[in-house]
TrEMBL record:
It comes from Acetobacter aceti. NCBIfam families: amido_AtzE, PRK09201.1. PANTHER family: GLUTAMYL-TRNA(GLN) AMIDOTRANSFERASE, TRANSAMIDASE. One of its GO terms (molecular function) is catalytic activity. This is Amidase. Pfam families: Amidase (PF01425). Transmembrane segments: none annotated. Residues 21-240, 311-428 form the Amidase domain.
Length: 454
């Protein structure tokens, strides 16, 4: 399944391969290879094959089909799928009634011809950066299975990186698309907050939650996002004329040197030496922590009082702590967020794009508990969002772009964040495509050549 989504859709639409053949191959790959990665929580064979047969009949009849015709995909376990209980990476919700319809963005993808084949692993209730799940296992990084895939959308990122699926969808609150995309070497998008509907998506932090896609190529990612958004993006005619700046200060400390070298090459490509240092980034990150803890904890408080032992212990402890955050602290965090967001948005009067690392370095080993930040030994898991959490407060669209294999640290992928003004996803994709064509971004998925990822 290392073919791109665009290639699969073309072969199906023009009758070179049936949608059933494509879906059967995807289901077989997921069923036989998932044990190595633990990225799947549930396969959807009956529904997927029925949808494939229906699509094949439409094509045989000459009926029009969507741009993602016959393309199999997976959904993070917090998206509603009709007829299935939405478990959000937990067993706590197993007694809930099945969903009566698919989540809104899943419906849009199906309308474009795509076929859901699996639900994918995640941190329980999306509270984490590592996809270590007490109920469904730890998702392993396809680039090195001794390492974390990142989270909380780790199953989505790993399924694409392993070549099991051409694309998958996940959610991003504080970095849950950008972190696993970076660690697994795939493309991911956190869209402008509020742009895509969250109907049918189990919430974590309502004031920060977004949903978005993962893909092995930037072209696939754009095609999938356009289907999720409901319309095509406007083209950017002269990408090299865009004003590009690097985020400095906080975003250049405790960063793997190979990652900074990759960013330097990108800045040179655009002929820019501009560096911007944001004020109060540490407070921005702290505000994101407070808001997430408080909203997440209060969402689960009544259930925690009734069935606390049904939760993953690590998740339970964080949620209980969050529910105890004083309301005054939450109010101050939101006030700070408004100030910080306004400052971020003002930056786009002078630049079109900001570049920053997505994570401090490559994926940690599963048995690696700590890393060094600012000369201090800190939790590896908690600090994977060091560079994503502050930017979440701004609500801007962020493209997670993998650096090429030549930039890899210890043979593992590295990734960057490309940030634009709200509603400017077309700018992000224009930059991503330019970097991919220049060999400055893009990492081959498992079983694919470098050419397949252009």
């Amino acid at each position: 399944m290392s073919q791109t989504a665009v290639a699969i859709a073309n072969t199906v639409r023009f009758g070179l391969r049936s949608a059933r053949e494509v879906v059967e191959a995807a289901l077989e790959a997921l069923g036989t290879r998932n044990q190595a990665y633990q990225c799947v929580t549930r396969l959807l064979p009956e529904r997927a094959l029925h949808m494939a047969d229906t699509l094949d009949a439409r094509i045989a009849n000459g009926d029009p089909v969507g741009v993602l015709a016959g393309v199999p995909f997976g959904v993070k376990d917090l998206f509603d799928m009709e007829g299935i209980v939405t478990t959000a990476g937990s067993t706590v919700l197993k007694g809930n009634p099945p969903a009566t319809q698919d989540a809104a963005v899943v419906q849009r993808l199906i309308a474009a011809g795509a076929i859901p084949v699996a639900t994918l692993n995640m941190d329980e209730f999306a509270y984490g950066f590592s996809t270590e799940n007490a109920h469904y296992g730890t998702t392993r990084n396809p680039k090195n299975t001794d390492c974390l895939a990142g989270g909380s959308s780790g199953g989505s990122a790993a399924s694409v990186a392993a070549g099991l699926l051409p694309f998958a969808i996940g959610s991003d609150t504080n970095g849950s698309i950008r972190v696993p995309a970076s660690l697994c070497g795939v493309w991911g998008l956190r869209p402008t907050q509020g742009l895509l509907p969250l109907d049918g998506v189990y919430p974590f932090v309502a004031s920060l939650d977004t949903v978005g896609p993962f893909a092995g190529t930037v072209t696939d990612l754009q095609r999938v996002f356009e289907a999720m958004n409901g319309h095509a993006l406007d083209d950017i005619e002269d990408v090299r004329s865009l004003r590009v700046a690097q985020l400095g200060g906080w975003f250049t400390q405790d960063v793997d040197p190979a990652l900074l070298d990759g960013i330097a090459r990108i800045m040179a490509f655009f002929g820019s030496r501009k560096e911007i240092e944001l004020a109060e980034v540490a407070r921005a990150r702290a505000s994101a922590f407070v808001i997430s803890a408080a909203e997440g904890g209060n969402l689960h408080l009544s259930r925690l009082r009734k069935v606390p032992m049904d939760y993953d212990p690590a998740t339970r402890d964080r949620l209980i702590a969050g529910a105890m955050v004083p309301s005054a602290a939450v109010v101050q965090a939101h006030r700070f967020r408004n100030w910080f967001r306004a400052g971020l948005h003002e930056l786009f009067d002078e630049v079109d794009v900001l570049i920053a690392p997505a994570t401090p370095g490559p994926a940690p080993r599963i048995d690696q508990a700590t890393l060094s930040v600012g000369g201090r030994t800190v939790s590896a898991r908690a600090n994977l969002g060091l560079f994503t959490q502050p930017l979440s407060l701004g609500g801007m669209p962020v493209l997670a772009a993998p650096l090429p294999p030549a930039t890899a640290a210890a043979g593992l992928p590295l990734g960057i964040q490309i940030i634009a003004a709200p509603g400017k996803e077309n700018v992000l994709f224009a930059i991503g495509k330019a970097l991919s064509h220049a060999g400055l971004a893009g990492y081959p998925v498992q079983g694919a050549s470098v050419a397949d990822t252009d």
